[in-house]
Design goal:
9 strands, 95 residues, 3-stranded antiparallel β-sheet, single chain
């Protein structure tokens, strides 16, 4: 899904500009992503296998959940949204 994301400087500072995710990738513009790592009580990391239709690294193992932070979205809200979208689990900020 193409969405608007905030564009950052190489130092991670907001530029005040937004762009479609596809444009940011095309031009190599810096932008935020979120990674959520799930692990078991025995400290084993739970990974996700990327879909075969992904353009980048199809069928490869990946972080539990990852995604882009939408323009103006808080990191915590993006993490909660991505977990629900990717693996169907409802979490809270306190989790």
């Amino acid at each position: 899904m193409d969405e608007f994301i905030d564009i950052l400087t190489s130092k991670g500072e907001f530029t005040g500009e937004t762009a479609l995710k596809s444009e940011a990738h095309k031009h190599g513009w810096f932008h935020q992503t979120v990674h959520v790592w799930f692990y078991t009580v025995t400290k084993k990391i739970l990974l996700q296998k990327r879909a075969s239709v992904k353009k980048v690294f199809p069928n490869h193992w990946d972080v539990s959940v990852a995604g882009h932070i939408s323009a103006g979205e808080r990191v915590e809200k993006a993490a909660i949204r991505e977990v629900k979208e990717e693996i169907g689990i409802d979490i809270e900020e306190s989790d």
